[in-house]
Specification:
Keywords: Metal-binding, Zinc, Zinc-finger. This protein is α+β, with helices and mostly antiparallel strands and 489 residues long. Helix content is 28%, strand content 33%.
């Protein structure tokens, strides 16, 4: 010890010992007087060192215990934080779902409002065009009557002839140029004498050089800011026959679908293959999936569904040709399409079967049966061409029929496609023609016949660029047509 401590009982004596039994510091005299028998005494420096070590030990022990408690607390805090994050995740997910539904509802309401507005505009313009058509029909009838009078003018006097010509010329000017002012100038022998003809008071003064203002009843016109053309009939011009090279050089194309712009996939019944043709690069690939490939439905650019054999639907990768799934329908099938990530399969006895992409059953439409070609339209309905009963039917996924129609000039309807306006196009195999049907089934017209080169066409497809593909001549030729519409204004 640096500084010695003196004993309180024996002044002048230094503390030299420590009694561990009585826990008292001792000088030499204290030890001799009262602690001679105490066996557990030690030198004061040793005792002090032991006390210091004990304090350090206790402090270290407390510190370690504190850190141990903190370490034990960390997992509990981590678990609590994870639980909190999980709850926040659920809240965020529910909030996102809520706002997604609100956005979807808003978009649906907006779409319905826009469609309603355009429908009103369409109906108003149709009404105006109908009135305009009636006006011109009346004018044509008037012109025919005037022509008849001109043809029989030889029996009239000169004055009657002049007045007749003047009246007819004025009416014709009004018809042909309703915004202009007609100026009639007729030159024949007695014109000058008739300029001031006063003897016939009922006629008054006649001036054949006077400009006559037009006060005719004009036809109803469309609004100035509206540019509407009424499509009469689309006209399709033949462009070319596609050069599709296959291994056996045999084609019977019975279905065509577009994968991407200029790239489409076809089923070839003769070679039992599906064909991927790139019209941009003029390349062809064949994918073998087994016997009797028939209808195709595009799931996405890389995956398609194909009816194969009599009972199976194959899910096939377009790039590799690998079969990703095989769905056994347990019934004879013909006809396949997709609606909103659902497969619609036509079964002979069970009707239309609605499946998910994995092949799990969702619903059915049992009252739609037969030998059908299926095509989905943008509104979500399914258009079915019944080849046996010569009937075209549009049905919703809940089974309600939107329309059903037939035409004696549309025989063995099969291939169906839809253009960007929603109009439906269907081929008649045995009648060698193509019909266009409005999306509501209210209107239909024949747009191509054998005069356009059709010979038992099988299927048609509107491409994304607006051109038309036709599998013609029993599927041997795939022909490309360009649309050219005829309009009146």
């Amino acid at each position: 010890m640096g500084d010695k401590v003196f004993c309180r009982r024996h002044p002048g004596r230094h503390i030299e010992y420590f009694c561990n039994i009585h826990e008292k510091p001792l000088c030499h005299e204290c030890k001799q007087d009262g602690h001679i028998s105490c066996k557990d005494t030690s030198n004061i420096s040793v005792a002090v060192s032991d006390v210091k070590n004990r304090n350090i030990y206790e402090d270290t022990t407390h510190l370690l215990q504190y850190h141990l408690n903190q370490l034990n607390f960390i997992p509990a805090r981590v678990a609590s934080n994870l639980l909190k994050l999980e709850r926040e995740k659920v809240v965020f997910k529910n909030t996102l779902t809520f706002y997604r539904r609100k956005v979807e509802k808003h978009l649906n309401d907006l779409e319905a409002s826009i469609l309603k507005e355009y429908q009103n505009i369409y109906e108003e313009q149709c009404s105006n065009l109908k009135k305009q058509q009636n006006f011109y029909i009346e004018q044509i009838e008037q012109l025919e009557h005037d022509l008849y009078e001109l043809e029989n003018i030889s029996g009239l006097t000169e004055i009657e002839t002049f007045l007749t010509i003047k009246r007819i010329a004025g009416g014709a000017s009004e018809l042909l140029n309703p915004d202009a002012v007609s100026e009639i100038s007729i030159d024949f022998t007695m014109a000058k004498e008739m300029l001031t003809f006063q003897n016939i008071s009922s006629l008054g003064t006649i001036d054949i050089h006077k400009k006559l203002p037009i006060e005719a009843n004009r036809p109803p016109y469309l609004a100035d800011d509206t540019n509407v053309s009424l499509e009469i009939k689309p006209c399709f011009e033949f462009l070319k026959k596609l050069d599709i090279q296959t291994e056996k050089d045999e084609l019977e194309i019975i279905d065509i679908k577009e994968l991407d712009e200029g790239v489409f996939i076809m089923t070839n019944r003769l070679s039992e293959n599906i064909i991927v043709h790139d019209m941009n690069k003029n390349t062809t690939r064949e994918l073998s999936i087994g016997e009797y490939p028939d209808s195709i439905a595009v799931i996405d650019k890389m995956v398609v569904a194909v009816t194969q054999g009599r009972r199976n639907v194959m899910i096939v990768g377009v790039v590799t040709g690998r079969v990703l799934n095989c769905i056994d329908m347990d019934d004879d099938i013909e006809g396949l399409t997709t609606v909103a990530a659902k497969l619609i399969v036509n079964c002979k006895t069970k009707g239309l079967q609605i499946l998910n992409i994995d092949g799990n059953f969702i619903d059915s439409i049992p009252h739609i049966t037969g030998r059908l070609y299926l095509c989905a339209i943008s509104s979500g309905e399914i258009v079915c061409a019944d080849q046996v009963n010569n009937r075209l039917t549009c049905v919703r996924l809940d089974g309600e029929i939107n329309f059903s129609l037939s035409d004696r000039n549309l025989v063995s309807p099969y291939g169906i496609t839809v253009d960007k306006h929603g109009d439906i196009f269907v081929v008649g195999i045995d009648s060698s023609n193509i019909y266009r049907v409005s999306s509501d089934g209210q209107e239909k017209c024949k747009i191509m016949t054998s005069k356009n080169g059709l010979q038992r066409p099988f299927v048609i497809l509107f491409l994304k660029d607006g051109r038309l593909l036709v599998s013609n001549k029993n599927g041997r030729d795939v022909e490309l047509y360009q649309q050219r519409n005829v309009h009146v204004q």
